[in-house]
Amino acid sequence: MNQIAFLLVPGLHLLDLAGPAQVFSTAAQAGHPYRLTYHAEQEGVPTAQGLTVQATTDWPRLTSDDILLVPGWHQDPGAPHTPPVGERTAARIAAHHAAGGLVASVCAGAFALGHAGLLDGRRCTTHHRLQDVLARRHPRATVIRDVLYVTDDRVVTSAGIASGIDLALHLAAARHGPRTAARIARAMVVYARRNGDEPQASAMLRHRAHLSDTVHHAQDLIDTGYTRTLPLADLAAASGVSERTLSRRFTAATGRTPLRYQQELRLERAEHLISQGATTEAAAHAVGFADARMLRRLRATAPRQTA
């Protein structure tokens, strides 16, 4: 069982903690073995919203498969700098990363990672109001502005408040695939965004930013069987609607027909196979095309995805 260890700091923003915690607890409910633990330098941690949360003062026993995540706290950009955590805690954060573990932060949590020395020589981000402060306090870091999250050598930083959900969905997608992340997002009734600072958006997530259960169900079927022929009649019957209704709802929700969505999944997978050394013909057959002509046509007309 993998552990998600949250390090809590006084002045904690509740959503910085609750968003990622909800993502990983939803993943656990879906069958992925996660255990969430909460740690601090004091048992009672006051939050910026006036609620005190309880944590253990025992440092977690972590393995390289575990994630250490630091939610943000209320940080006045003009206030004098004080280290967000003590030297012993900072050393423990650095030690987890040195042992091969992943360390992540939300919002002002980046300052704790900076105090641990993990931002030096790395790209990072934080809340837009704190970007200049972070850059001044950690001049050896490269602060990337106006993005939701940045990943650099197992150090993952995200912007403010709600972006912790995007960060956690990204980590879930990296570990379990975009389909799992999309299902978690759907269960939480949030948009499945992955627009960090690099081109990493999957078609399975790009077109899940809607609330149509019928279309989500049809997408689930296509996601699992996109290499096969999927007649519209079969998709509609499995989704409990007519072909015309499914086509109308699918296009309204995603901006493309079910067939076009299936082709995008095939194209994305084929591009990956080609990047790994497969020939166009082999990639075409692997994703379900009878020959390479359709794949070549799709590659020639497809827009390039950007972050």
TrEMBL record:
Residues 216-297 form the HTH araC/xylS-type domain. It holds the Pfam family DJ-1_PfpI. Keywords: Transcription, Transcription regulation. Signal peptide: none annotated. The keyword Transcription applies. SMART domains: HTH_ARAC (SM00342). It comes from the Bacteria. PROSITE patterns: HTH_ARAC_FAMILY_2. GO terms for molecular function: DNA-binding transcription factor activity; sequence-specific DNA binding. CDD domains: GATase1_AraC_1. The keyword Glycosyltransferase does not apply. This is Helix-turn-helix domain-containing protein. It comes from Actinomadura litoris.
